[in-house]
Recover the amino acids of this structure.
């Protein structure tokens, strides 16, 4: 993951990252959108509910400037051992994931919401929340 050189504060939009197919993606393409940056795993105890809820959330808000950026991670209990190709196949086939899935990362951040100035999460109507796996919540 590379940050652009700039004298202004660094934001998520200053980075270029690889997607799951190895293509460089300049995160500035998401400027002006509400982002939910989330780490995902295919063998977590909450995989089914998390991927289902992410798909529902994306489907509901994708046309309103909302984007989910999914970063697979195998750090939490080895719950994402698959290759990038296997991860994309799993998420897109089983859960109809339409949001971008990026290269597997190594991180201890569970998720980061980057909001457009003036936008509040209260503007989104959540019927429930996306739960964390027990292993992941212990590593915070």
């Amino acid at each position: 993951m590379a940050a652009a050189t700039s004298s202004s504060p660094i934001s998520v939009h200053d980075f270029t990252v690889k997607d799951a197919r190895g293509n460089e993606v300049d995160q500035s393409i998401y400027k002006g959108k509400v982002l939910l940056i989330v780490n995902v795993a295919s063998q977590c105890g909450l995989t089914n509910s998390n991927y289902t809820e992410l798909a529902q959330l994306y489907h509901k808000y994708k046309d309103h400037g909302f984007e989910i950026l999914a970063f697979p991670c195998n750090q939490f209990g080895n719950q994402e051992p698959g290759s990038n190709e296997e991860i994309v196949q799993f998420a897109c086939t089983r859960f109809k994931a339409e949001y971008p899935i990026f290269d597997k990362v190594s991180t201890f951040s569970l998720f980061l919401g980057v909001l457009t100035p003036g936008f509040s999460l209260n503007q989104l109507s959540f019927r429930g929340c996306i739960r964390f796996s027990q292993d992941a919540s212990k590593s915070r």
Summary: The chain has three helices and six strands. The CA atoms of residues 24 and 105 lie 14 Å apart. The chain has one domain: 12-134.
